[in-house]
Amino acid sequence: MDVRFNLYPPCSRPDVVLGVKPHADGTIITLLLQDKQVEGLQFFKDDQWFRSPIVPEALLINVGDQAEILSNGKFKSPIHRVVINPDKERFSLAAFCIPESDKEIEPFESLVKESTPRLYKKVKDYSGIFFEYHYQQGRRPIEAAKI
Ligand SMILES: O=C(O)CCC(=O)C(=O)O
Ligand SMILES: [Fe+2]
């Protein structure tokens, strides 16, 4: 598990600056503790951005790309971003649950059937794929795993 503290300083131009650009997490799951006062996280669904409301003391559990692969697409890893507040700084704490880089992952056999054919290849070192696709090519890393 990797843990990261995020600190988003205020910015007077939230119309042109994002805290985190749109992405889906490359994890199995991500545990997220959000700021108790300042919102910022948004999820993309049906061509719209939806705010993630503050729920004090709650951990937000986000499905990552590797859960999408393991579940043969039953779980979808959502696209999300962080917007910046013009006046207040924001904190978040993210714990990224990821397998060791030498472990191969693929859809669970029991979820691959005639009615639900296999959608993803076997992948290894998804963090490496994530880095190459997301940061270097600006593409969704899950595309690399699709059959
Ligand atoms: O700061 C947040 O609420 C989310 C950050 C995030 O999406 C990430 O670190 O992957
Ligand atoms: Fe994220």
Automatic annotation (TrEMBL):
PROSITE patterns to which the protein is assigned, alphabetical: FE2OG_OXY (PS51471)
SUPFAM superfamilies membership: Clavaminate synthase-like (SSF51197)
Domain of life: Eukaryota
UniProt protein name: Fe2OG dioxygenase domain-containing protein
Pfam family, one: 2OG-FeII_Oxy
GO MF entries: L-ascorbic acid binding; metal ion binding
The entry's keywords: Iron, Metal-binding, Vitamin C
Entry-linked InterPro entries: IPNS-like_FE2OG_OXY, IPNS-like_sf, Oxoglu/Fe-dep_dioxygenase_dom, Plant_2OG-oxidoreductases
Species of provenance: Prunus armeniaca (Apricot)
Tagged with keyword Metal-binding: yes
All residue ranges annotated as the Fe2OG dioxygenase domain in the record: 1-99
